[in-house]
């Protein structure tokens, strides 16, 4: 079976694994949005995080045997099920001969070495949807725009996500978050790699070792992001120019548009102008193209209309959507387009 390019677990449902009766989630210092899992500052090593996040199990491939009238038939050639060794539960995988699991412990070892030579702090770790997807994140060195003035800090996290269901490659992705308002800057950056993928093959671990030695994409991504952010911060932007940006991103209702469409457009426009010109999250960067981008990002993260499932609050649903974007390596056209328009002007 060929790995796809994205993680395919049901992160949009916030399905933290509870197979063992305990939530498979670890968070450093602060609880996650779902309120589950172990929150502690005590974990010093990836082995300790592995245990606290309930990820100290492996995956194996077992033959698939059909059953007919209560009797087992011959195994299906070149087809295997992926199964957890701790519980014997199937984790949703139907894979072929060449698919090789990347074990949870090996994923932690990779992230240890990729980011900090084994000296890193894990921010989160856990499993989704019965163990189909596991993830772990570490905090990288932050960058600060205009340290002596605005001091606008961007925290950088490296997220590693791996699937055990045969549907997707493992991915490492850089996740920048603006500290003052926790805007997730999940956008492409010119001249820098943000995502690295490895497929589940027999030489997967060799490729992980190669990535540790050669990529260094964390540092390159941080440098490229800082350069772009600094360019935008150094350029002023008026309310009138910001209004043109809004039109460029969302368009405007045509002649004869229905009242509810016009009303929705005006409400969105007013909200964006408030975020740009008045919101305290822009106090330190007010009146710049960097503030304009942050207003759009904040609107996208927190204020765009979403329909939450009955089982979730709107806040929980927005957080789950953000998690889905990260784990699936989904593009965000609005954020990318806004940055491109602001850099091009």
UniProtKB/TrEMBL annotation:
It comes from the Bacteria. This is DUF932 domain-containing protein. InterPro entries: DUF932, Phg/plasmid-like_prot.
